[in-house]
Amino acid sequence: MRGSLVVGNWKMNGSGASNQALVTALTDCQWSDSVTVVLCPPSVYLGQVQSLIADSSLVLGAQDLSAHASGAYTGDISASMITELGCQYVIVGHSERREYQQESDSLIAQKCLAAINAGITPIACVGETEKQRNDGETFSVIRRQLDVLISTLSTEQLEKTVIAYEPIWAIGTGLTATPEQAQEVHQKMREQLAGSGQNMTLLYGGSVKADNAAQLFSQHDIDGALVGGASLVAQDFSAIASSF
């Protein structure tokens, strides 16, 4: 169901000591009860973070999972494993995995299916490169990415999925889509998702910061954010979560 959601993607950052300091600081912060705040640390720290957030409103998520339930897949982590560690969400198909691990639209859809079957909410990422935007291909790229999800998942499964629009040209660059640009894409996504789209949570991701979060969240079709670097600073991440 559609709701306010802020997700912190720590990427390949963290240590035992820095994780404890960050989570301890976040547990002292306050934001609206209507906002779900999710932390996605590297998989090796999921157990530690699960313990640190046990008595808080913070929710645990993973950064990736395998499309397979088990087997000879060295280095992968399955849906049942992250479920056992307390994860309620998992990021799927982040642009960095699409680029560096060559993950296809089809594989990403299968990962979403694995997550849903395990009772975990997938956060499926879509977005275009700077060249694709400059060439006027933004909507065709996102349409293609969403089409595979729509054809793979049932209506019920699709409505259990969160979609994160992350313009690749705005990730870690300091550039951010204007609220109007982001809204336009989110509106198009809801239209493509048809009836399901009205019930789905749609996030924006791409250099989200405390000083632009409120403008982004004020847009009709943006329900929250997938936050990268700012999620590693408690004050900044808290300010984003408090921007609704």
Automatic annotation (TrEMBL):
Places the protein is found: Cytoplasm
A Pfam family this chain is assigned to: TIM
Binding site for substrate: 9-11, 172, 207, 228-229
Protein origin, superkingdom: Bacteria
InterPro entries: Aldolase_TIM (IPR013785), TIM_sf (IPR035990), TrioseP_Isoase_bac/euk (IPR022896), Triosephosphate_isomerase (IPR000652), Triosephosphate_isomerase_AS (IPR020861)
Keyword terms: Cytoplasm, Gluconeogenesis, Glycolysis, Isomerase
GO molecular function, one term: isomerase activity
EC class name: isomerase
EC number: 5.3.1.1
Pathway, per record: Carbohydrate degradation; glycolysis; D-glyceraldehyde 3-phosphate from glycerone phosphate: step 1/1; Carbohydrate metabolism; erythritol degradation; Carbohydrate biosynthesis; gluconeogenesis
Catalytic residues in the record: 94, 166
Record's catalysed reaction(s): D-glyceraldehyde 3-phosphate = dihydroxyacetone phosphate
Function of the protein: Involved in the gluconeogenesis. Catalyzes stereospecifically the conversion of dihydroxyacetone phosphate (DHAP) to D-glyceraldehyde-3-phosphate (G3P).
Subunit structure: Homodimer.
PANTHER family, A to Z: TRIOSEPHOSPHATE ISOMERASE
Family classification: Belongs to the triosephosphate isomerase family.
Identification of the protein by name: Triosephosphate isomerase
Native organism: Sessilibacter corallicola
Species lineage: Bacteria, Pseudomonadati, Pseudomonadota, Gammaproteobacteria, Cellvibrionales
